[in-house]
Protein: S-acyltransferase
Amino acid sequence: MKCKRLLSVPVLSVLFLVGFIYYTTVFVFIEDWLGLKSPVGILNALIFSSLAFMWLVSFAACVLIDPGHVPPTFVPDVEDGEASDQALKKNGVRSRYCDKCCIYKPPRAHHCRVCRSCILKMDHHCLWVNNCVGYSNYKAFVNLVIYAAMGCIYSMVIILNAALKKDWKYGESFPLKIFYITCGCIIVTLSLVLGTLLGWHIYLLSNNMTTIEYHEGIRAIWLARKSGQSYHHPYNFGLYRNINLILGPKMLKWFCPMEISHLKDGISFRTVRDNL
Ligand SMILES: [Zn+2]
Ligand SMILES: [Zn+2]
Structure:
């Protein structure tokens, strides 16, 4: 875990934004719509506070958990047991050599130009968490997108209800209208972006695929079609097993971003072929 990753403009901007959304949703919009002294108001404030808390926990986990680096002792699997250059070339492992790190990359690992390192099961480098999203923090990232999308959609519903309930004709000042409209626009945009991102990662998760593998897959499908064959993603074991592999075997812990005890070394992965 590296705490200094927290000290970056995008990370601090996200923390400020979450704080702003939390404060306005609870102390302005819930107060305006239901009142923070009514039982329904308290219930909504509690639900939203829990979502915001889990949003922050997943965000911290995603920033602080190391995505996974290739161990210096890693040697690629070569069938004839020889790690000589010729043997590696023959087995197609040579293409998995990283010229920048001067190491062999395990399956699903890729070099990140920003981190200047090879990352295990790399998905993408995320500016907003100032970290790569890889093998060890992908679960935290999925949780972050889930809680952030849910938090924004919840906040959007509260703002809309508060705006609809308010009697705008009498006594309400112009700056308050501007404030409502600005917050509404921010939250609608965020809900759309995060909702789309959530849909995309649900698709990847259900196929046990990374963003990089999705793009590689497009080319692989095209090449396979050209030669009259079909291409299947080698790590797709079916929806339930894919979720188990990424989020863990216990359903109750799927939404705990810090719970990653089910993860192994991130160097070797079973493929559908291994199961045949
Ligand atoms: Zn590298
Ligand atoms: Zn990176």
User: Anything to note?
Assistant: DSSP finds seven helices and six strands in the chain. The beta strands are 97-98, 103-104, 110-112, 117-119, 124-126, 131-133.
